[in-house]
Amino acid sequence: MMQKKQNFTLPILVMFMLFFMIAFVTNLAGSMGKILQNQFEVSNALAQLGTLANFIAYACMGIPAGIILKRKGYKFTSLLAVVIGFVGVGIQFLAGSAAPESAFAVYVAGAFVAGFSMCLLNIVVNPMLNTLGGGGNRGNQLVQTGGTLNSLGGTITPILVGYLVGGSVDTATIADASPVMIIAMATFALAFVVITLTRIPEPHMETAEEKAARLEAKKSGKKEKYSALSFRHFALGAVAIFCYVGIEVGIPSTADLYMSKLAEVGPEISGTVVGVYWFLMLVGRTIGAIVGAKVSSRAMMTTVCMVAMAFMLCIMYIPETMLVTIPIVSVKVPLGMFFMALTGLCTSVMWGAIFNLATEGLGKYTPMASGIFMALVCGGGIIPFFQGLLADGVGYLGSYWLPFACLAYLLFYALVGSKNVNKDIPVE
User: Fold this and answer.
1) What is the pTM of this model?
2) 4, 12, 23, 271: which could join 154 in a potential S-S bond, CB 3.0 to 4.6 Å?
3) Kind of pairing, strands 323-326 and 331-334?
4) What is the rounded average pLDDT of the residues 11-39?
């Protein structure tokens, strides 16, 4: 009797939902910066502390997350991720009703816990969707769809937070954003129930033989002669990922703080303009997926880095008095912020291009490389924090020299650093 093929439609939809949540929760930390700044009267740097805490968690959890996935499998790891995500967002929610002297610390602690969840989810959702789709073209299609929903989550969050705050930025508090957090917690709870009730295939979980071999190697004290970091192009690529995520987050987060302070813009419109940045990332990813089969990662990376560097110069040097009207909302913003939004087209394809260049030729070291990459996603918190420090010292627009310098490094990586000069290392 032929065994009935299991229908994975429901868990696939849950993975799509979690793809959305990764961007939704991550961008919530950045969008909350203007609320933290006004509720607690903190500097631009401290306003980015929620984002910093969220991404520092990646540095702590990146490599352990890869180990958990290998030893415990997709189902356990995804359940652990949604539980931690629920707790993290719940702590942020409680910050809205915490005592004034402790609310800031409670919120940052919640962002840190949520960061553990985002790291685990990033580790699991891509390979899990590919597995649920049966690999091949179908698996790739599901992953690309998930990436699109990730961009959609990034687009909605700053717009939603901006409208919740409205024009009352001077009186806005964490409690004003509590409906967003309730939605996030409800989504995590639903995901937990569905994943618990679904049988998930585990083709990549550590086998009994692999576990025995690992324990024997540990007992004998034997160590691999090489690692992913033995490859120069990967080591430089890991730094590139650190820079890239910092660029991706720092550019819109700083712009949001800047525009919120402009009388002619305000928090509601600033969130909408930042939402355009994330929407253009969605557009860019769609274009990248179409042309990716014809254009090399190196050529794509070189082009978008040069264009993005030109956009950074426009942000910094176009006079603030030159305004442009945003058609949908009929509000004028500085022309430089128009180029800020356009940068989303450039940053959209960088992650995939860097990953492809950095892992080319790694063979058996690729899983280890993925864990290291995830740890260095912490750049998404560290670089915006330092850009905030620059904004405190030289002004918002002058702080864009930091992402400009990071883009210059990415250009160097695309042209020179991405070449594999360690082809003598065995990878089978």
Assistant:
1) 0.76
2) 23
3) antiparallel
4) 80
174 contact partners, CB below 8 Å, separation of at least 6: 32, 35, 36, 39, 92, 95, 96, 103, 107
Residues 6+ apart with CB under 8 A from 291: 300
CA distance 242 to 374: 9
Task: Tokens for 181, please give them.
Answer: 């957090």
Token couple for 111: 């962002």
Q: Name residues whose C-beta falls within 8 Å of residue 116's C-beta, 6 or more positions apart in sequence.
A: 57, 60, 61, 84, 88
Is residue 25 within 8 A of residue 118, CB to CB? The reply is: yes
Q: What is the pLDDT of residues 84-112, one digit of tens each?
A: 999 999 999 998 888 888 888 998 999 99
* 405/263 Cα distance (integer angstroms): 30
Which structural domains are found in the chain, ordered by start? Answer: 7-204 (1.20.1250.20), 228-419 (1.20.1250.20)
Percentage of the chain beyond pLDDT 90 is 27
What pLDDT is attached to residue 259? 87
**Total residue count of the chain as it appears in this document:** 428
Q: Specify the DSSP element, H or E, that contains 413.
A: none
The answer on pLDDT for 158 being more than 80 is no
Q: How far apart are CA 188 and CA 205, in angstroms?
A: 24
Q: What is the DSSP string of 212-244?
A: HHHHHHHHHT---S--GGGSHHHHHHHHHHHHH
Q: State the pLDDT at residue 2.
A: 45
**Closest of 63, 118, 55 to residue 88, by C-alpha:** 118
Q: Which tens digit of pLDDT belongs to each residue from 200-239?
A: 777 667 667 767 766 776 777 667 777 888 899 999 999 9
